[in-house]
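Handoff note, outgoing to incoming analyst
You'll be picking up this chain. Sequence as last confirmed:
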Amino acid sequence: MKKRIVKTLLGAALAASMIASTCTGVLAESEENVTLTWAVFETDNYTAEVWQHIIDAFEADNPGIKIEKVLMTGDSRPQFLKTMLSAGNMPDINIDPVDLASTEGVYAEVPEELLAKFEDSAVVSFNGVKNLVPAYKAYRTQVFYNKHQFEDAGITEVPTTWDEFIQVCDTLQEAGYTPLMGVGAADIWATAFGYWTGVVNSELYTAYPNFNEDILSGELSWENDVLIDTLKSWQTLTPYYHKGSMSFSNTQATSEFLSGSAAMFMDGAWSTTTIDNSDEYSADDFGTFMMPTPSGAKTYCTMPQYWGVSETCENKEAAFKFCEYVLGGNPDIYRYYLQADGTFSVTKDPVTYEMGPVQTEFVNNLEGYTLVPEAMKVVGDNAFPTGFEDYTLKSLQNIFTGADVEQELSTWDAEMERLASAQ
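Most recent structure output, in case you need it:
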């Protein structure tokens, strides 16, 4: 699921006032007069029209249950939900609820009969409580590239090693092209996204197969040599990035890449859908390849996505009915939801869809690579504390703009411990 949040003038305060008048404003005693609020976000792929199509289908098949959309705004969806929780206006159903799932009493326990419909590996618990509904899995970073720019620069093969990748960057620069487009640092999550999920995560899990457990137990520090060296390698790529990388939003960065402002763009599988479905650009003009790593590590990661039903929801049965309907109960709607952002089914009876050429290449590239967890998106008892990822994202922005790597990482262990103690 792509995290390109469409920024609007609606802040959390406005959303809170809206929800106050509608959230759980239902007649609990009558299933025929139920209104549920559903917190969603909008991106280039997850548009208002996508959410409305899902709502319309559910309401048509479930008369008496109404769904009211709540748009999560700002740079951080977890922070938006924390604001709503603090205001006493938590939406009934939340997309992307993971950061608050470890806090007792925020989300309701999911019925076992609903969880039984999903792959066992997708079901997670916090201190024995299963309070998240699996939604999908999203394949993370590969490098998208402009075939015409590669050809014009005389590059006939995609790089498979770190040294070859650097050579490609040099060759593109010599030919007058900008090698790399940042993912869009105006959206804080996007600054390091491509490099972190495509390179850093691979290096960490190759060196430390139990990385999250080792960090949480204190056996391993964030100030480890692998992370230090890999982030320093990232800094060596800075001269290859487009000068607008720190000012573009994710949406702007994607558009700039597609229009030819840079030759390569590290992003997730959702960009395959953007390209394959584009009316403006041809999928034949773009390709993908696995991002090489300095050590030669060959892994990839997926992000699990979940939904959560708020403990304050007065109609939990109806809320879980909505979750079940969208997330596999109606295969056509689940397929529509998955295909919108290029994500993949986590139901025991898989729901599939026809992929376009770029998405097909993206998936085929995974052959020969090992699946590992995405450290910052691990869910359950090995998850990092709420708020820690947001903290690291700010630190990674500093590193990208030249801050000392060791100095930045020196604060991570203490901050993680502080946040863990506050949970």
